[in-house]
Amino acid sequence: DGPAADTALVSLRLGATGALIENVDDFESSGQFGAQMIGLGDIDGDGFADFAAAKPNSSTNQFLGGAIRVLSIGGTLSYGSSNLPPTNRDLSWQPGAANNRTAGTIVIEGAGPFDTGVVAASFAPGELNFLGLPILLNTDPSLLFINFPFTFQLDGTMSFPSSIQTAFLTGIRIYIQGFDSQFPYGATNGLEVRLF
Questions:
Q1: Which of 46, 152, 166, 179 is at a distance of 20 to 30 A from 61, taking alpha carbons?
Q2: pTM for the full predicted model
């Protein structure tokens, strides 16, 4: 497909293999988006490097004549919805050890001891109120691809290994949510996983 004629495109690639991580469009082609790139370290705290892409001729800033766009290409991002009831369980992803940050762990917290639960994943987020529980995944059968039952541990948590670096899925976003299926029922926040 590629970007429209009036956009600029930056392609981010893995240094070791050259595999495409993500294409980032910018709707101001005259701004010279991506003319310069610089690593920023981990400024959003997800354990992965972030980058800045310069737009030296941007017209979006009338006073300075340029702009910078910060890009986060891999990692996780928690999300919810102000249109739905609040979540009452916690879902997070914890990066792995310093020598392999992408081999992390998904953690669900806040359930009762040995409650049964399920974790689900979709290729798109959603917004649905089901019996007072917020469903933050798109439940269309063509997009919902995993439904994994489990039992919470004695301390009301569940964790399982989850790598976010998968060569054949580079650039794909997956949306995950966990549920406590015992009364009082519970739902976690959503977790957007950006694979690279």
A1: 46
A2: 0.71
